[in-house]
Amino acid sequence: MRTLFNRLIFIRMRRVFELLVVSLFLIIILTINSKWSSSIINDNNKHRHININNISVNSFLSQDQSLNQNHDTIIEKIITGQPNLAKYIHLDLKGAPPQPNKFYETFFNFIDQLNMSVKGIVIEYEDLLPLNGRFANATHRFGYKKSDIELIQTAAKSHRLEIIPLIQTFGHLEWLLKLREFELYRDELASPMVITPCLDLTYVLLEDLLQQTLDMHPNSNIIHIGCDEVTLTNSHPKCQEISMDVPERYINHVKRIVSIVQKIRPGIRILIWDDVIRSEQFINNEKLLNELKNLVEPVAWNYHPTFDDSYIYSPIWNIYSKLFSNTWAASAFKGGLSRLSMQTNTTHHVLNHQAWLQFMKLSTNQNNKSFSAIILTGWSRFDHFMPLCDLLPTAYQSLISSLYILTTGKSILHDYVNDCYELMNSIGKDSQLCQSLPGLSIWSGISSLSLSLSQIEDRLTFLHTVAPSYNRKHLFVRRYELDLRLNELEMLKNDLLTVTQLLNHHLSELYSLDVIDEWFDLYITPILGRINATLIEFSPVRNQTSWSRRPSISIKSKIIMQCILPQSQTTPEKCLSNPWHGKGFCEPNQYKSAIDRCEGGHKSCDLSIEIYKELVKVLEHCSESLHQWSLTSQRKIVQSKEFGTTRAAWIESIQAVEKLAERNEDITKNIQHHVIDKMVAYKNSKYERSFLHLKKVKEFEKDFKKVQKPWLELLNKINEAKQEFHHASRKLHHAKRAENVIKTDLGVTDEQKKKVKDSVHHYESETETCRSTYSKLMEDMKAKQPGYQEEMFKILSRTDDFERDRLNQFKLMFNALQEAISIENDARHTEMSDLFNKAIGKHNINSDIEYFNKHYGRETKTKWPVFEDVHESCHSL
Q1: Same domain (yes/no): 477, 339
Q2: CA–CA separation, 405 and 352 (whole Å)
Q3: 294 is a domain residue
Q4: For residue 40, pLDDT beyond 50
Q5: Residue 356 in contact with residue 331, Cβ under 8 Å?
Q6: Rounded percentage of the chain residues whose pLDDT exceeds 90
Q7: Helices (DSSP H) in 543-591: which residue ranges?
Q8: Hey, what long-range contacts does 870-874 have (CB within 8 A, 24 or more apart)?
């Protein structure tokens, strides 16, 4: 009994304890909730100062997607700025170069008045410089003139800005190497991206380029020689003569370029992009990288909103601090995000600068040398062949915000800023400075355009959601909503045309017509095309007032009509997209036109098989639909009120039409057996494969290469001799000019005159030697030319025979197709005609009229009303 009592006491005590624990837990939860609610209320009453580190911003979203929708929101980061860090703004002129007299003076004035430690401008001219000599026909047709280059430098000097020309000297020489006359200099024949370092003529060419560039920039004490994104393959035949790996050849090339630049302008500082020398093959070979010690100043570029650990803690930073007196940074204020971009993403680029500030602080703490300057790059294209992106005026907000965060450590981002005056007030600057910003109306114009395009995209997406192709095909769409949305789309199209017309005017104030045309073709023409196509596609369903029962029956004849194309009016060159058109067959690699023709024949065989298989499917669908149509139509006629010979003729005419299905089935069999099967058999026998290649075509290519190899070697020798002769001639010309000047200079000593005279004799001798070598090689070429041409034409004749055989097969295919669809002497056609004649013959109009009158009309007995008297039996009522 006592044990039982103790047990009950224990159970009650445990329950009381559990109740106390639960009560304590509830008190804690209520306390935390009260404090949290109070904090929220207080925060909502404050002006928002948010630490960037405590929020997650997707830098790949536009600003209005990434940030809070409160227009007054300011994101402010308390981080150490770099007010004394030298800042340089990079202008990329390979895309949308501004008109010099309308841009540089006002833009440089704005940068000067902004007072944010901008020391200079890095200008990447590419093909825009007014070069002469061998480059005269390589530059941009609407490039800058020498007076424009002088204008730029004068404007820069008046606003205390240094001009740093950026001239690519290794990779990204597409603007030059794309041209036929400079193919010789390519590292890889098929790609114009990288110049070969294995030709001595390369350095003659680059010296000329650098000489002319520096001559046009007499006051520049720094030059940038590019050398980024070099995908060197050592494919040039000359590279095989000296065995050297890619990193070593890269360093040797840079050293030679540095030597050329220092010879032209001793003491000049030389910048180089660092992405190649920052790679593992150089980090693991510091001895090789040591060869560049104090020759160049690397520019480390990174355009990401955050830096990964492999970049931050790379051993390259210690190597740089030991080898180079200065290391530069490079961020991006535009063009660092997307190849095709109409409007600059400010958020992304500001976060990139924030990442640089954090990295610079970390580098200093790790006892690495601090960065001596930063270049804010503003890319207009990813490379020479890429589309235009981010016109400069759309990046003004990004540029100003980026300079601000670099200087103060604070970023001020409004959700949707398209007003310079508001932005300048936000950073505590005089808003009147905006008046000196060229193309300011382009900034606001493209912002408005972006909003219009967003609305149009929404409508197009909605339309294709509520009325997809299946519904439009069967005219089965909810019309009211469709009309409403299409009317909205037409209104938006009109608004878009108005905005673009105004924007076109603004663009013409800063850019040339070729830039404006390209920009509109990239960003406006496609969306207008989509709008017009949508309005056309949706027009049939707008007039629909009644709809069929479900399921909808497909109209197969529509498929047939879609297969009927207008006759092509293009030239053979356009049809083949022939890159060899306009060149002589015996020129280097032109034999590939014959190889391409043979390979194209194989593809044409495949295409013919594919096309006629599709035709067979169409005809089969058509036959099936005709049978179904005939059955349904006869049933409807039987159920109708039609009668007599008309009903009989109608039904029999339907049955006659149905014979088309049987005719189609015959055509289908004939096309399958006499066209498709025969073409398949021909292709398999003619185009025998050897692993990945067509055996016969590979033989042709091998024979062409064998004949052309010694000819290419001779052409290379001729080109080298020509370049050496021209170079020697120019040196002789300069020497003679110097001699003429000295003759009239009374202050020149006899010894100096003798030296000049000796140099003239030396260059005369050198020129004559080069001329002789060049002439002999030309004579050698003329002697070998007939034999070389004859051998090339022999192989070409074999490819002609090969192609002629294929074309004969195509003629047989055309004849078989004609025979398959011909109606001459066709039994089915005769039967169908007979059935029609029989059906029409049965149709007797008078007979049907008489039948109707006999049973329902004039010959029937009509019961006319007669007078009926009252019957006597009715009186009793």
Answers
A1: no
A2: 10
A3: yes
A4: no
A5: yes
A6: 40
A7: 556-562, 572-576
A8: none
More confident residue, 862 or 776: 776
Burial of residue 129 (number of CB atoms within 10 Å: 0-12, 13-18, 19+): buried
Classify residue 368 by its DSSP letter: P
Distance CA 664, CA 667 (A): 5
Amino acid at 269: R
| Distance set, CA 694 to CA 381, 537, 728 (Å) | 39, 44, 49
pLDDT band at 856 (very low <50, low <70, confident <90, very high): low
Q: Strand 186-188 relative to strand 86-92: parallel, antiparallel, unpaired?
A: unpaired
Taking residues 210-227, report their average pLDDT: 97
Residue 765 lies in a domain: yes
| pLDDT over threshold 90, residue 151 | yes
CA–CA separation, 69 and 105 (whole Å): 37
Q: Are 153 and 143 in contact (CB under 8 A)?
A: no
Tens digits of per-residue pLDDT, 57-81?
333 333 333 333 333 334 455 578 8
Cα separations in angstroms, 710 against 182, 590, 716, 788: 20, 15, 10, 9
Say whether the peptide bond before residue 393 is cis (omega within 30 degrees of 0): no
Residue 10, Cα to own-chain centre: how many angstroms? 80
Tell me the pLDDT tens digit for each residue of 369-400. 689 999 999 999 999 999 999 999 999 999 99
Instruction: Report how far Cα 692 is from the mean position of its chain's Cα atoms.
Output: 30
Phi then psi for residue 302, to 5 deg, are -155, 120
Q: With cut-offs at 50, 70 and 90, classify the pLDDT of residue 825.
A: low
* 529 lies in the same domain as 630: no
Q: Which of 504, 698, 492 is nearest to 595 (CA)?
A: 698
Rg of the Cα atoms in the chain: 41
Are 804 and 843 within one domain? no
Number of structural domains (the chain) is: 5
Range of the domain at 849: 590-687+823-858
The beta-carbon contacts of 420-427 under 8 Å, at least 24 apart in sequence, are: 420/396, 423/397, 424/400, 426/74, 427/400, 427/401
Torsions phi, psi for 75 (to 5 deg): -95, 120
Q: How far is CA 512 from CA 102, 105, 508, 509, 807, in A?
A: 11, 18, 6, 8, 49
Q: How many residues does the chain have?
A: 877
Read off φ and ψ for residue 52, nearest 5 degrees. Answer: -60, -35
d(CA 677, CA 616): 12
Asked if residues 271 and 225 have their Cβ atoms less than 8 Å apart, the reply is: yes
Which range in 24-28, 103-107, 462-466 is most confidently predicted, on average pLDDT? 103-107
Tokens for 86? 């030298």
What would the pLDDT profile of 400-451 be if each residue is shown by its tens digit? 999 999 999 988 765 455 688 888 988 889 989 998 899 999 998 998 899 8
Whether 559 is in a domain gets the answer no
The count of other CB atoms within 10 Å of the CB of residue 463 is: 22
Helices 644-671, 592-639: axis angle to 10 degrees equals: 160
Task: Specify the CATH number for the domain of residue 730.
Answer: 1.20.1270.60
The 10s digit of each residue's pLDDT in 623-671 is 888 888 888 888 888 888 787 888 888 888 888 788 788 888 888 888 8
Report the alpha-carbon angle 569-572-573, nearest 5.
115
Residue 332 sits in a domain whose CATH number is 3.20.20.80
Q: Do 111 and 118 meet the contact criterion of CB atoms below 8 Å apart?
A: yes
Determine the 3-state secondary structure of 359 from DSSP. helix
pLDDT of residue 571: 47
Q: Which residue has the tokens 């970023």?
A: 411
> Could you give the count of Cα atoms lying within 13 Å of 557 in the half-sphere of its Cβ?
4
Of 546, 564, 579, which residue constitutes the final position of a domain?
546
User: Do 180 and 248 fall into the same domain?
Assistant: yes
Q: DSSP secondary-structure letter at 184?
A: G
Domain final position from 410, 435, 460: 435
* Helix runs in 640-694, H state only: 644-671, 677-686
Which has the higher per-residue pLDDT, 790 or 56?
Answer: 790
* pLDDT reported for residue 436: 85
